[in-house]
Amino acid sequence: MMEKYYETDADLKNLAGKTIAVIGYGSQGRGQSLNLKDSGLKVIIGVRPGKSRDQAKKDGQEVYDVAEASKKADIIMILVPDELQAAVYKSEIMPYMTEKKCLMFSHGFNIHYGQIVPPANVDVIMVAPKGPGHMVRRTYEQGMGVPALIAIEQDYTGNAKKYALAYAKGIGATRAVVLETTFREETETDLFGEQAVLCGGVTSLIKAGFDTLVDAGYAPEMAYLEVCHEMKLIVDLIYEGGFTKMREAVSNTAQYGDVSRGPRVIGRESYEAMSEILYEIQSGEFAKEWMLECMVNKPVFNALTRADEEHEIEKVGAELRGMMPQFKKN
Ligand code: NDP
Ligand code: MG
Fold first, then answer.
1. What are the Cα distances from residue 10, in Å, to 6, 23, 167, 180, 198?
2. Are 292 and 197 within 8 A, CB to CB?
3. Most-buried pick from 28, 175, 188, 200 (CB within 10 A)?
């Protein structure tokens, strides 16, 4: 069983007197830093000039260039996009990674795949909230928190675990639960989850269902409502009470179709594809492919994303959502 931590296992005092630099002020940077500040910790922001920096100033944050913030800080949390972290680290953070400082991440990619190699005389820690930044912020404001993972890659000071737990408490995560993992486990399971199931798996499943119905002559609107719109209702039930609660809520006919037909859709071929995808993650092949893709300005990323943007399901979906009051802005 994984080690689990709650409010009373973590002490904010372990970060008292320390300056935390949050590098990047996007989804996670904004959510985490506002929570840390409201928890009474000393937070500064390191971000380049632009939209994010303007937002940070508007939020009343103390804002610096990345290098300046890294210099001032005891704890440096890197929250710029994963594919840019190595370059930002090398030019603006590395010179200030002096003895006993602490380098933090919310995803293990750059450490696990050796894109960032910190000096041996610093702590290297992960605190990874299991939700987007706006949820990290919203749940905190509601007196709750988003669960998080912690991991220790280097414990030079002997205080790494205390820092990780205090940081997790500062962002509100110990109000939910904090689980201890490793950089390797977090990186590999996170990549697998988003590729095979959450992002890649779900969009491909929806597209396959939509295409099958439309190719068979059914109205695209019907196809959209059946295979995409209703997805949320089903997922919400599973989220709340597992397969059992979902199956109690749907008709007996739906339940029989579910248990008898589902395994034919996700059958042996899918298990094999998932194993291959996992192997590419474990071997570093995916990481290499993605880093090379970024070096040549993302041609595959752009082409494949555009093809999906132009798929009929996106047009029909936008049209239908435009007519549904729950999707009207504000
Ligand atoms: P975002 O894309 O939302 O934000 C990135 C931030 O970095 C922006 O403020 C951006 O500023 C800034 N930035 C980009 N380039 C530079 C640069 N060269 N110098 C300084 N600042 C720069 O990122 P996320 O919050 O999504 O991701 C951050 C980390 O959190 C990643 O490691 C990710 O894996 C992890 N994570 C993300 C989750 C999520 O749900 N989003 C969940 C859990 C972990 P600008 O506006 O100027 O571009
Ligand atoms: Mg994830």
1. 7, 23, 9, 13, 31
2. no
3. 28
From ligand 1's centre to the CA of 51, what distance in Å? 12
Looking at residue 17, its amino acid is G
Ligand 1 site residues (CB inside 6 A) read 24-29, 47-48, 50-52, 66, 79-82, 84, 88, 106-107, 128-129, 132-133
Confidence of residue 152 (pLDDT cuts 50, 70, 90): very high
Phi, psi of 4 (to 5 degrees): -120, 145
Look at strands 148-154 and 19-23 and give their pairing.
Answer: unpaired
Q: Which two tokens stand for residue 6?
A: 């709650």
pLDDT at 18: 98
Q: Is 134 a catalytic residue?
A: no
Task: Give the closest residue to 71 by CA, choosing from 92, 47, 42.
Answer: 92
Tens of pLDDT along 81-131? 999 999 999 999 999 999 999 999 999 999 999 999 999 999 999 999 999
CA–CA distances in Å: residue 96 to residues 46, 131, 191: 13, 30, 30
* 163 touches 6 (CB < 8 A): no
Distance of CA 172 to the CA centre of its chain: 16
Structure tokens at 9: 């296992």
